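Recap from last week: sequence in, structure out.
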Amino acid sequence: MAERVVVGLSGGVDSAVAALLLKRAGYDVVGLFMKNWEDDDDDEYCSTRQDLIDAAAAADVIGMPLEAVNFAAEYKDRVFAQFLREYGAGRTPNPDVLCNAEIKFKAFLDHAMRLGATRIATGHYAQLRAERGRFALLRGADPVKDQSYFLHRLTQAQLARVLFPVGHLLKREVRRIAQQAGLPNHAKKDSTGICFIGERPFREFLNRYLPRKPGPIVTPEGRCIGEHLGLAFYTIGQRKGIGIGGTRGGDGDPWYVAAKDLENNTLVVVQGHDHALLLKRSLAAQDASWISGEMPEAGSTHSAKTRYRQADSACRVTRSGDAVIALEFAQPQWAVTPGQSVVLYDAEVCLGGAVIG
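Predicted structure tokens:
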């Protein structure tokens, strides 16, 4: 009997091509569509209904069964609750990282095993390599689409049961394969919103769950130049939507959020993209997760990203232990943000990462 693989079908082209390639390779392929958000699920921001239609249409062309499963309760408990706690504490979490670890590669994986699968597959742009009985997570071949950053919390047990069929392809190749196969979603736009919640006005969305707590907006010198809505609604490096667009200094440079003073409920802003307060040569991070199970040693050198769409930067580990790591960078990093993930690499290999404190 052919090996059964359950593919997470999102309705997008990447997961559809992943399923198509596995089908062509002779696997017994089953599609699984995950519904993970129910609050205000409508066609304006959260296109679950259309995504399911698109997934079903792709499954029909590929010739495989499709099941829809509701993980909304798991998402709310394991991902969204933590998301709100982090924002409420003044940090800026990355829900996609937690969603992958808790939903796509845990709840989904468990469900797939109950369906008789030996492995699952997704449309992520990442690759795997077996090394002496263990698995290394590699960057995707497409440097623009590489998603290893979002997968850095996966474990050896999870990677042993995962396939990334499009990880070795460029995005344009994926679309070409989809078009040639007659997949109806071959030209569908990529989603860019919060994992499963969709593309929506974020401040308005967050305000449904977190109360506003206004306070002063100040310069580093302590001059009050406005009032913020609540520290939860701003992030380090933010330029638009601060609410002080009409306030200019002598040089007229735009304002950026540089810091949050939680104790005094104060938002600190600076002028100029390269202001000294926006540049950090070092950071400490906690809740570390290492794919191999072995943490990098103090004194070792690597490259790292402190946000997804960022070029790697050379760094040295200055402290490592007890799920905490400290890094020193060769070049200053812009807008290092508490709550975001710092992810370490050795060339193409993703080592893991931790949450910036």
